[in-house]
Specification:
This protein is mainly alpha-helical. The protein is built from 12 helices and 8 strands. The longest helix is centred in the N-terminal third of the chain and has 20 residues.
């Protein structure tokens, strides 16, 4: 039978069938094999180690927090900043009398430990336009910065008792977190003694400046100022007597108005006064010829010739005053009630406060006789024969008001 020409559609169908039966299989198999090979290679390849998470460098404030509580920085191994600046006591003294320190822990400090709170606006020590001393830290204002203040106790023979920079640097190097201190201060491993000590005092200063526990403004007084609560009738009377220049006259030094720039009252203007506080009994005053003259010494010497300043001490903030007993620079009063009553009766009933020798009351006995004219007079102090500026009721009311200055106030449950 002769060959016949196939129609075009038949030829196309034949080609398609051949392709479907394996005409394109070579290309598909190669692709599949390539993918399989890649997967096998990935399976046997060593897993890539993820990059380690960077360890955060501690801040100076973080390290300062640890240093503040570090007893090993003292020669005795028992004293830290926090030992004398107790948080639950408003960062002031623990209950008792003058603190003990020194190399063996038996040396009594010269002065009561002032609160470390609310010091940010103190400023450097100096004299105002009227020549009155203001500012500075410590009872005698001898430190102008928190760094200088932090350095003081570290080298004070009656406190942490480091004998010098080298001794303190040795203690700093022995700390388990010495590397954190160097890292926070960007110091090399071979940092010098001076660099380490400077870093430590900077860390202590930064901690106190940045941590809100040193300036919380969380008292009932603040809540009243914010309109979140109100004073009791007695507390309100106490504030009125506190501010009244003819009665308590307390606000003339312990300013109850908002301080510029912060909108909160600091209850101090960082001024200095000689109040004629009775002499205490301590290791220092066992020597009858010794007198703590505040601005005139013995812990500062640059004003030793200014007899008009002798016996003056810095006005502390009254914030947390209910927690910070004992009171005054020499810890001579144990209670707030005694303090307010002293102001009311110092010159009206002096035998209550000062010793009597041969029938003579020894007024202002913590000052040499020639310097007793420096003692402050005027309200609330009164001369003999005058009526008291502060009545017993006023005194009780003022104490009630002072208790509203304690930080940590919380509104009763269920109130806004």
């Amino acid at each position: 039978m002769p060959t016949r020409l196939r129609p075009a559609w038949f030829i196309a169908l034949l080609i398609a069938g051949l392709s479907g039966c394996g005409g394109g299989s070579t290309t598909v198999d190669a692709s599949t094999q390539s993918q399989d090979a890649t997967a096998n290679a990935e399976a046997v390849r060593t897993p890539r180690t993820p990059a380690p998470t960077p360890v955060p460098v501690p801040t100076l404030a973080d390290v300062g927090n640890r240093l503040f509580n570090e007893v090993s920085l003292s020669a005795s191994g028992k004293l830290a900043c926090a030992t004398c600046h107790v948080e639950t006591r408003g960062h002031a003294d623990a209950p008792g009398f003058l603190p003990l320190g020194g190399a063996d822990g038996t040396h009594q400090g010269l002065r009561s430990t002032p609160s470390a709170r609310y010091l940010d606006q103190a400023g450097a020590f100096g004299f105002d336009a009227q020549g009155r001393p203001r500012g500075g830290l410590f009872w005698d204002g001898r430190a102008n910065t928190r760094q200088q203040q932090a350095r003081g106790p570290l080298f004070n023979a009656d406190e942490m008792a480091n004998t010098g920079v080298a001794a303190l640097a040795t203690r700093l190097r022995a700390l388990p977190y010495a590397g954190d201190l160097r890292a926070a201060a960007a110091l090399p491993a071979a940092a010098t003694d001076d660099q380490l000590v400077d870093a430590a005092v900077n860390a202590l200063a930064r901690f106190q400046a940045e941590d809100t526990r040193f300036h919380p403004f969380t008292s009932k007084f603040d809540a009243v100022q914010d309109g979140r609560t109100t004073f009791t009738a007695q507390e309100q009377r106490g504030l009125a007597a506190f501010n009244d220049p003819q009665r308590g006259n307390c606000a003339s030094c312990h300013d109850s108005r908002p301080a510029p720039g912060i909108g909160r009252a600091l209850f101090t203007n960082f001024s200095y006064h000689a109040l004629g506080v009775p002499r205490n009994r301590s290791q220092a005053t066992a020597d009858p010829s010794f007198f703590d003259l505040g601005l005139c010494g013995p812990q500062r010497s640059d004003l030793a010739g200014r007899n008009d300043l002798c016996g003056m001490f810095r006005t502390p903030s009254l914030r947390n005053v209910a927690l910070t007993a004992p009171y005054f620079h020499n810890a001579s009063f144990a209670t707030l009630e005694d303090v307010v009553t002293f102001y009311a009766t110092r010159d009206l009933d002096p035998a209550r406060w000062y010793p009597t020798v041969n029938g003579q009351v020894q007024l202002y006995n913590d000052l040499p006789a020639g310097l007793r004219t420096n003692v402050q007079r005027g309200a609330p102090f009164r001369r003999a024969g005058q009526p008291p500026a502060i009545t017993p009721q006023d005194a009780a009311d003022i104490v009630a008001f002072l208790r509203t200055l304690t930080d940590g106030f919380a509104l009763p449950a269920g109130t806004q």
